[in-house]
Design goal:
The structure holds two protein chains of two kinds. Chain A is of the alpha/beta class. In chain A, 29% of the residues lie in helices and 29% in strands. The radius of gyration of chain B is 36 Å and the shape is rod-shaped. The chains are: A alpha/beta, B alpha/beta.
């Protein structure tokens, strides 16, 4: 994991704000980057960028200056659901998947000169799992260590609702990483609280939860979050119903996510950086 | 009741299966994603109930439960029959008053055979047994134990004793009835070949006592008269004119006359052939259809095997559930390590 993490390509949906020079198209017009337009010298008094050709051509004898689109750095945040449901271990261990994703995001952000931070939440925002966004590459091993050591222990992800206060200021690219097992109304509240940012929902799932159910047998299902348990007599008819219900919920979730920007990226069984890049660049 | 009550403390463990699952638990992110299914809930409850039952039945079985001995009061159609058997010497001869031999059976043998048949055909009757010769012999009080009754009847097949005293035999039978408070429909079945010149019966005080006793107990009287017709002599009808008509010359006739004055149901069955006796038995069975109450003794019974059986059955259900148990798929390639990239 400490070896070279896969790079994820990403692009914020709107122009970046700020003053730190980086890789993303910014709102500011500056002296470098892709040509943007020409304005009069009075608006942009920069003698180094005077456009002689346009200045000479102007019958009113105004002086024009070329403007360029300033490329800026942004901040990325991974908001991670650390409740006990995330300790599910089916085809893969969900926390390990999330750890890989965060490390890859950190690596990618630092390569482009962007800042990366993590906010871990269970019932509260966990202060021991809060890494403010930084361009410092040195935190990558630290992120790896935190995920390797961490075992989810609390029974709710209510802290996700309180992350907005940690994300004040400029628009950020926020990866909301959860299995989204809470009620849809609660998910909507979370999305609403983060709506000024560019939200990328990452739905952590596992094929053992839905598709690869056993065709027959008794399962004593224990809810990782509440600890309650229920016996399920699995049979083909029930399996079909189970899948149908899962598909219906998935559809409802997608509808919700689309209202707040992007559909969810499904982090299923294994982390595929290329797939995430395609997903992020498509929309 | 239980033999070892200390083991009943183990019953406290019975609710444990409702708290702890017998199945291996499969962790899942959220029960909300699990469809609600009535059959599954039912099976889940059954498994817990079976486990609790197995524990409870096992604990009770260890305590070695038994059912208490008890007296069960039963009501049936039948009668309380006291068999009064003549054991006089004359009963050891055949019906024709011959020596026993060459395929002919004695009156005693015939009578016991018939009585045995009667006992076998009346499943709800209670029987007492009295024998008499010169004096009455108390053989068996009124009881519903068939084996005891049959044994008593078999025991009557001993060689006879001198003398016939019908009155004392009947008196003992009536006493037996009087001492049994359950004997609500008493019957005296009296098997005799009559008096051969016997006296003793016609003591007036005895006659008086018998009459009172019969009326007090409302006992029906049946006389199985074991004698063949001899020529045209009829022991019950009046003698030809001129002959003496007294208890000494015609004792059977006078006994019959006395019984008719008792004021209770009375019948004579003339057993001049084996068939006649069978008909008599059938007739008595037909007549005696009053309801009787009797007690049946049910001995203490160890019911431990039943509880072991219940525990085994419940455990079998659990084993079946365990065999049907499965889990969500788990990849063998995943070793719990974090490095998946």
């Amino acid at each position: 994991m400490t070896s070279a993490a896969a790079t994820v390509s990403y692009r914020p949906r709107e122009r970046a704000e700020g003053i730190v020079i980086g890789a993303h198209r910014g709102r500011n017009a500056g002296g470098q980057g892709v040509f943007l337009d020409q304005v009069t010298y009075l608006r942009q008094p920069d003698p180094r960028r005077i456009d002689l050709r346009l200045t000479l051509r102007d019958p009113f004898e105004n002086i024009y200056v070329r403007r360029f689109e300033q490329r800026l750095a942004i901040a990325l945040y991974a908001i991670v659901d650390l409740s006990r449901s995330m300790s599910f271990e089916g085809t893969a261990w969900k926390m390990a998947l999330v750890g890989d994703l965060c490390l890859s995001l950190a690596h990618s952000a630092h390569e482009l000169g962007d800042a990366f931070g993590i906010i871990g939440c269970d019932t509260e925002v966990r202060q021991d799992f809060f890494i403010p966004a930084t361009r410092n590459r040195g935190i990558e091993p630290e992120i790896a260590r935190r995920f390797a050591d961490f075992a989810p222990e609390r029974r709710s992800a209510a802290g996700l609702l309180r992350t907005a206060t940690y994300l004040a200021g400029k628009r950020k690219l926020v990866f909301l990483i959860s299995d989204f097992r809470m009620p849809l109304a609660e998910i909507e509240k979370i999305l609403e609280s983060l709506s000024r940012h560019d939200i990328v929902p990452i739905l952590v799932s596992d094929s053992a939860e839905g598709n690869e159910l056993p065709p027959f047998g008794l399962i004593d299902v224990r809810d990782l979050e509440s600890g309650a348990s229920r016996v399920v007599f699995m049979r083909p008819a029930l399996r079909q119903r189970w899948r149908a219900e899962a598909a219906a919920r998935r559809q409802a979730l997608d509808g919700l996510f689309l209202r707040y920007g992007r559909p969810a990226f499904e982090l299923k069984d294994r982390f595929d950086a290329d797939a995430l890049s395609r997903h992020l660049l498509e929309v | 009741m239980v033999a070892k009550p200390d083991f009943l403390w183990l019953l406290l463990l019975a609710p444990v299966p409702f708290l702890v699952s017998a199945l291996r638990r499969a962790p899942f992110p959220s029960l909300d994603a699990v469809p609600h299914d009535t059959l599954s809930s039912l099976i889940g409850f059954l498994i817990k109930a079976a486990a609790a039952l197995a524990v409870a039945a096992g604990a009770i079985a260890l305590a070695q439960p038994y059912r208490l001995a008890e007296n069960v009061k039963l009501v049936a159609t039948g009668a309380h029959v006291v068999l009064v058997m003549d054991r006089s010497l004359s009963m050891d001869f055949t019906m024709d008053d011959d020596e026993v031999g060459s395929g002919k059976e004695s009156k005693t043998q015939l009578a016991t055979r018939m009585l045995m048949d009667f006992v076998n055909r009346s499943p709800h009757d209670q029987f007492g047994v009295v024998a008499f010769s010169s004096a009455p012999i108390f053989v068996l009080p009124i009881t519903g134990h068939r084996d005891a009754v049959k044994a008593a009847i078999t025991a009557l097949r001993r060689p006879g004793i001198e003398g016939t005293n019908v009155g004392l035999g009947l008196q003992l039978a009536l006493n037996m009835i009087g001492h049994d408070p359950e004997a609500t429909s008493p019957v005296v079945l009296f098997a005799s070949d009559g008096e051969y010149g016997g006296a003793g019966f016609f003591d007036f005080s005895l006659q008086d006592a018998l009459r009172k006793a019969f009326q007090r107990e409302h006992a029906h009287l049946y006389w199985l008269f074991l004698r063949t017709h001899k020529g045209n002599e009829d022991v019950f009808s009046a003698p030809p004119r001129g002959d003496e008509d007294s208890p000494h010359t015609k004792p059977e006739r006078h006994m019959d006359l006395f019984f008719k004055t008792l004021g209770v149901t009375y019948r004579v069955f003339w057993a001049d052939s084996p068939h006649a006796i069978q008909n008599a038995v059938a007739e008595i069975n037909r007549l005696e259809t009053r309801p009787v109450t009797y007690y049946e003794e049910i001995p203490r019974k160890d019911v431990t095997p039943i509880f072991y059986g219940i525990a085994a059955f419940a455990s079998l259900l659990l084993v079946l559930a365990k065999l049907a148990e499965t889990e969500f798929r788990r990849s063998s390639s995943f070793g719990g390590q974090v490095n998946v990239i």
